[in-house]
Amino acid sequence: MTIFDWHSGPYPARVRIALAEKGLLPKVEFVSVNLWKGEHKQPAFLALNYSGTLPVLQLDDGTLIAECTAITQYLDVLDGNPTLTGKTPAEQGLIHMMTKRAEIELMDAVSVYFHHATPGLGPHVELYQNAEWGLRMRDKALRGMRYFDEVLKRRSYVAGDEFSMADIALLGGMIFAALVELPVPEECEAMHAWHARVSKRPSVRAWRAMVAQTH
Asked: Which residues form the GST C-terminal domain (predicted)?
């Protein structure tokens, strides 16, 4: 398998953490697509992924799978023992629901803030910016943090009692928020406690080690 991504990207982080959770990191070849140079918007990469987003998984037969959720779903069921996406229909539904909420309410909101209300990836990539929209999405991300704080007051993990793809999505949002210096409010104690706990997982430590090796 081949993964096209960028080592420190928050969306690629989600797939790298999932790979580590499944013990698949040694089986993957990583190909760097430089976000800061806009390589993900060039024709060569757009031929792989029409959306121009990272990461993309390429299987040995040439099949291409984009989108973090789709890639994680594929990786999770390879061994016949899904641990990240749910075993029962109810678990699967809840995990996918909370993963989507983590994307909409936090991760994607931070992304819009980054691309519109900060220098983003620079003038060669950010061809259009709407600062007002970016700031609205910053505020949405902060509301999302407070929403997930309430969720995590009631249960150990985002979608229930077990670590799942939804936790990885929320963690990706926090990785992105840290990159743009948008901290989780101090009063969100449950979310801070959850973050401290999941940061100790071997998969998250493996991802951080991979990022550190590239600097």
From this structure: 88-215
